[in-house]
Structures are given as structure tokens and as C-alpha cells.
Amino acid sequence: MVFSTTGPFSFSPDSSSRNSTDEVAILSPYYTSLDDDWITKSISSSTSESELSEFTVGRFNPILSERLDNRNYFSKVSYDPSTSDYVPTVLTDYTFSSKDSTDPCFLRSVYRTVPKSPTEIPSSLPFSSIAHPFSINNPACVYRWENERELSIPSCVTCGAYFSFHSRTIFSGSQWRCEFCDACNSITDDFSLILQQMLMEHEDSTTDNLMKPSFDVLVKEPSTGSPFLNIFLIDISRTSANTGFKRSIVDAITFTLANEKYRVKFPNAKVLFIGYDNALHFYRLSKQRVNEIVMIDLEEDEIMFPYDTSIDPNENRPDVVRILKHIENSSNDKANGRNALLHAVKITAKLLENRQGKIHVLGLDNTIRKQCPSLLERRRRQQSLQLYTQSLIEHGISIDLFMLENDSEIYNDLVEQLCLKTGGNYHFYLTSSSAQSTLKEDVLGSLSGFIGTHVKIRISASNGLRVKQIKAGKVSDYPKNNIVDVSAINSETSIYFELEQTASLSTQAASIQVLTFYRTTDGSERVRCHHARLPTVSSKKDVFSKADCETLVASMAKYAAYMSTTRNLQNWFCRKIIDLLVEYRAQQGKDPGICESLPENLQSYPSYMMALMKSRIFINNPSKPGRNTFFNFKIKTGHVKVICMMIYPLIIPLHNMGFKSGFEDSSCQLNIPEPTAASSRCLKNNGIYLSFLQGKIYLWTYGGVPNTSFNNSLVPDQGNVPLHPSNPHEYKSRFSIQIENICNYLTKITEVDFSRVHCLSQQDSGETQNEILECSFGLVEDQLFNSMDLEQFQNNLKVLAQEKSQNKGTFSSINVKEVKSFFHKIRFQKQDIFKQIA
């Protein structure tokens, strides 16, 4: 059955989804640097209190995106107004009580401010929210209605909002009340029958506080015209061949087209291969031989595609193999494809104007880089890019990039901007070996995660609220009539929106409706509708949660990678940490919380840096102020955790540890010596050192100290030492108890299980051990924290705390600068070792 929609926002192929010329260019959901005004604000030397609040929560914070997109439960704070001990605050996301009918990955919200008095409670509504309408984590929450007869989805005759699945809105069997304007509307007989059946099936899990199951309806059957077309633009230059990247490209495409995931996603799709260097190369088969057509003159105003050379990989697999083998074996004298790639994109985009398709660019990144143009030229290009981007979005065209970094400099380029603004995926690799190891999965993942194109999104809010801003997936802000267009979508597409309170609220909940129209890969058109209810906060309890601490620490690590000198990094950390500590203690009041239960020398930076082991972050900030550049769109999770720990890995000299009298008394205080910067050059004295990496504890013996110095105290088990012996009455030395106490504190701080110690000795056959030590500790300069002793560090904290108090809780922002060599080493230099310890 084919469903149709009624109401002011009905969707049809003729209406158009192609008439939003007022929209500005669409942005990536994990990338903010394309907004020059936002960049200027974030790196300004002085920031007002309101600007700081906006910087922390507003617009589209990448850290917020990652936190809200995080599938691990440690970063979520469950919130129930009646029972919860935690009230969500800035940067704290919440979920409702876990129920079968609630998708925890659909909606996340953050609070702009924390209410400090009853009169401020209305302001505690979640004014920033992120929805994931195409999340595949809980498909049971989405009804897909496809029967044999047409069905009209009811919409409100007054405000245009669509029917809500909250049972209390249905009455008299044939009417429903709109949650957004309270108008009464009729329900058609056919819809009423299906609705009653659905409500009976889910009666047990239906409550007012839960988001009801969403619906996904077919509004137009698949088209019988041209099938979906995947276009691969391949760098065939001499440099690409010499680096081995061309071979990796061919292997990745061959692997993807033969994979079952691709066949399921694109059962009838065709593929088209175009090579580029300084010219464009088209391939066609004639009598099982590959003929190559070369287009050299690329300066014409209107370049026409010669003819359709697309192939069905399912029916003509041998032909696909022949063309790819020809591309791999072809030789070329041209060093790069600087002049041809943008023309190739324009030609293929023209080809996709009248059919569904996607463009995938695989090549060297320096082939699309150009010298920085003048200011006038940059403005002209930006205006031209905006118009061209809007054209691509209107036709549902997106561009993926898979680039090998063949150049140490990172510049801005039109094709990269088109990728980000049309919702494409961006992957790049610093070495050919890293590309060879991940390119196959990246290409397959990009295609298998692709859902469709040309999305139109509308968000409605209940009385007293107005949708102020929407950023849907890769989107523009300030949409007209709360409607935006998005080019490409996948299971990770997110819809970010901000609300503005325009009047007092009559109820304790705000209703939100997210309506999404999209075209799938088979050419069918569908509508997906989500409803959610956002409760207000009824009281102020504990307003600074541990999840906030983790998020702020992750944010610190993110920005630290861009500090230009160790001194700047050190000062920046002091500011951020005291900011966190002051807020934490100020909000806790008489309840000291976890911070003051720690030993004195773990109350400062070490305790909070340990939270990094649990924090997943994306690093995507401008590497140069005022420049629309970025470093990486996606970074592997394991590598990101390593990057976090690189910021401040700890090392404690246990041989210098002093033991207080009555150590074995359970009431005694833990005495931990001052931690130092973790670097191989810090191992100056013979002895035993305790260090932490990736949620593990390492005991290092250095110099003439043999393994037996601690193996006699801790029973080793294949290189691991259990902290808790199987026999509880077994004697434990002071050394063993001390380590156990340290680890218990770290477990309490981080919720990471520190139950085993990994013993490594300098005398071990230790090439791997030495490399781990080097990549873990050697990337942080000794002067980072060694230049300032603990007393000086604490004095600086006090000064900063006083400054914070005098400036009404704000600090001057720190300029974000580029540290390319530091970041490159962390992310890529020891990649194989990172994989072992990730």
C-alpha cells in the first residue's frame, strides 16, 4: 500500500524540495569551522560571560555532538524528575528511564542554565537538543507502515503538525487533540483501525513521560527510471601509483563491490569509473577489451559527458574487474591531477541532476590543494561555492573523499568544502600503509551506512516555545519556517536544534515533533516522524555531575592538541582545571563529593586527567585562526583514547614512596609521592615506577632493579599481577597494599577496573615494551610539568581561582594555534603500537 500525506507540508516530487534558495551552505555535524563568525568569537582574546556560555553549549559544539552520539553508557546521566539525584546541567545529556518503547539514541538534550531559584525553573528547559531520526540502534521504535491501500496521515488543520502517538491525545474514537496548538482534528476510519491495533499492542509500555514509537511511511513507490549510480573518481597520476595508493584504491573498490553489505544496500545500482590526472579518463568495454577515452581540454564553459559508461556490478562483474585491473596497471607521466578533479566533479554532478547517485573521490590530497588566494579571490570563490553547493543540495548530490595526505601542509579547497557541505564522508590517511589497512573498510562503511538523499526536515514545538535554530545533520542554521534541506543522510545523521521560550508554559512538559522526508537508494520517497516530550526541572539537587567532569576534561584534551608551546599548554590546563574544580566545589555545597575524598595530591589535575581514559572525543577544530581548515573528520576511537592519554600520562616513582606509621591500619591516609611528567627521560633513577595507560597499570623497573623486587611481593600471572589474591588471608607487603590503595582510588575516580598490574622490565626482550614506552611517554616534553613543582602549581590554581571570582566566573579565552608535528606523531607515527594498546 502506498501512503500519502496531507497538510501544509505534504511531500511530492513536484513540490519541491528544490526551492530553498534562501538557505546558506550546509555544514558537517562534527565540524564548526566553516562559520567564520563563530571561529572569530571562539578565538577572541576577550570573551564576555554570555559569549562564554554560547561557546560552551551553543551553536553546535563538537564535544557535545560526540557526547550525545556516544553509545557507551558511562557518558549518560539517567534522569527521572521524581527519583533522580542528578539534575542535568550544562553539557550533561539525559535519557528518560529505560523502557522498551524509548529509543535512547533518538533524542539528547542539554540545559542552557541551571535553575538557582523557583522563579528560574522555566529556564531549565533543555534549550538545545539533538535527534537521531535514522539511528539503527533501536529499530523497534519506528513503525514502517506499508500495506496494499492508500492511507492519509492526519495533520493539524491549524498549525500543520502531524498526529502524535501519545494515547491521551485520542478521544471519541475519531478525533485527536494537537499537542502543539490544542486544536481538535478528525481521524479517518482506516487510520483509526490501524492506530487502535497499534495502541493495544503497546499498551503496557505507553506512559506520558516516554517518547512513543515513531512512524516511517512510504509516500511514493520506487521509481522505475534510472537506477542508483555510484561514481568513483580515481587518482591515476604517477604520484598516486608510486605511493601505492592507486593499488589500495582498486583493492578497496573491488572489495566493496563484492561485499554482501553493498549488494543488499544497492541491489540494482550501477557504477561508473573516471580516472583523473591532468585530464579526465573514461573507460568503456569493446569485445572484452578496455578502451580509454581521454578528455584533455577542460577549460570549456560547458563540458558534456561523452556517453554513459556505467556498469551493473552484479550482472557484469568480469567487466568491472577488467576496468579496475586496467586502471591499476596503467602508467602515467602526469604527476598530479590538480587541474582535473574539480571538472570531474562538475561533470558527474551534472550527470546526477536527473537521477539518484553519489560521488566518491579517491586520490592524493595535494592534487586538490592550491595556493592560498587573495582576499578578493577567496570571497569570490566563497560566493560561487555557496551557489554551487546549494545546487548540489537541491539535487540531493553528495561527495565522499578518501584522500592520502601527500603533503605536510593543510590548505582549504573547494572540493573539500563541497564534501563537508553536502553531507559527504571525509577520510584521509597520512601514510600509504595506514590507507592500505583501513581504506577497504572505510569505503564499504561509507556506502553501507548511506540511507538516502535530499532530506527535508521540519520541527514543531508546543505553545510557549519557538524553534530558534536548526542544524540537521550537515546543515544550515536559521531555516525559513523551521524547514531545512539536507543532501545526504546515514545512520549517524543528527538533527541539532535550539528552542526559545516565548511565553510561560502551561504544562510541565514541552512537546517536540521532528518530521523528516527523504528519498531512499531505491528511489522511493518516505516520511519519518518522531515525537518527544521534554520535562522541566522541578527542583535543584546536584547540578554538577561526574559526566560533566568527564566532558570538560575531554574538551581540555581536544583543545590542548592545538596549543603552540608547552608553556601555553601548561597555563591553559591550569585555567581549565581550576575552572572545573571551583565549579564542582561551589555547586556541591556541604557535600564534598568525590573530589575531597581523594588524597590531597590527587585532588588536582591527576584525578581529572584519568577521566580521559573513558572519554571518547572527536578532534576537529580549525588548525589556524580564521582559516576554514580542519584536521580530520573521523578518527578511530582507540586512537583518540591514546591521544587523550598523551596529554598527561602519569608516572609515579614508587621507590621514593614514604610510608606513614600504622600503614596497615585501614584508617590510615594514602601517601602518594608527587607524580611527574611521564617521559622516558624522567626515569633518571634506578627504581620502580608506576604508570597508567589505557585503563591499565604498568610497573616499570629501571636500571639495576630486578623484576624480583616486586615479583616477590605480587604473584605474577603471565606478566599480569592480580591485586586481590585468591586467598584473602595471604600476607601482603606494604608495597602491595600501597599499590592496591592507589588503584582503588583510581577505580573510584574513573570507574575503570584497575585490578591487574602489568609488570615490564627494562631487561625484558623488550622491543615492543620500549616502543610502547616511547610512544606513550616520549611525546610529551619534560618541561611540560617538570618546570613547575607541585607547590607552584597549587599557588597558580589559587591565583586563577581568585581571578575567576573577580571576573564573575569567566576567564579570557586562549588563542587556538596549530601544533601539527605533535598531533601527527600522536595520531599516526606509532599507529601499529597504538592498535596493540588500544
From TrEMBL:
Gene3D superfamilies for the chain: beta-sandwich domain of Sec23/24, Sec23/Sec24 helical domain, Severin, von Willebrand factor, type A domain, Zn-finger domain of Sec23/24
GO molecular function: SNARE binding; zinc ion binding
Domain Sec23/Sec24 trunk: 228-431
Protein name: Uncharacterized protein
Residues covered by the Sec23/Sec24 beta-sandwich domain: 453-536
Biased composition annotated in UniProt, kind: Low complexity: 1-19
Family listed: Belongs to the SEC23/SEC24 family. SEC24 subfamily.
Chain positions covered by the region annotation Disordered: 1-20
Domain Zinc finger Sec23/Sec24-type: 153-190
GO biological process: COPII-coated vesicle cargo loading; intracellular protein transport
Superkingdom of the source species: Eukaryota
UniProt keyword terms in alphabetical order: Protein transport, Transport
Domain Sec23/Sec24 helical: 548-634
Keyword Cell inner membrane among record annotations: no
Gene Ontology CC, one term: COPII vesicle coat
